[in-house]
Specification:
11% strand; elongated
Length: 71
C-alpha cells in the first residue's frame, strides 16, 4: 500500500498536512521526500510540454499499424 500526503518541513521536523491511512497503523514505512510544486506551476509545466510536442495531422491521416512495423 502507498499513500501520497503533503507535508511541511519546519525546524527539521516533518509536519503532515493530513492524516495517514489507518491501515498503516503499526507498520514500518519508507518515506521519500520530493519537493512539491504548486498546482499552478504543475499546470504550466504540463501545458508547456504539450505545446512543445504537439502537431496537427492532416484531415485524411489514417494510422496503419502494419506499415509502422514493416521491415
Amino acid at each position: 500500500m502507498y499513500q501520497i500526503i503533503q507535508a511541511t518541513c519546519q525546524d527539521g521536523r516533518l509536519i503532515l498536512n493530513g492524516q495517514l491511512n489507518p491501515q498503516l497503523e503499526g507498520k514500518n514505512v519508507q518515506v521519500i521526500l520530493v519537493e512539491s510544486e504548486t498546482t499552478h506551476q504543475q499546470k504550466e509545466k504540463f501545458f508547456s510540454f504539450v505545446d512543445r510536442h504537439c502537431f496537427d495531422l492532416p484531415d485524411d491521416y489514417q494510422f496503419n499499424r502494419e506499415e509502422l512495423y514493416r521491415d
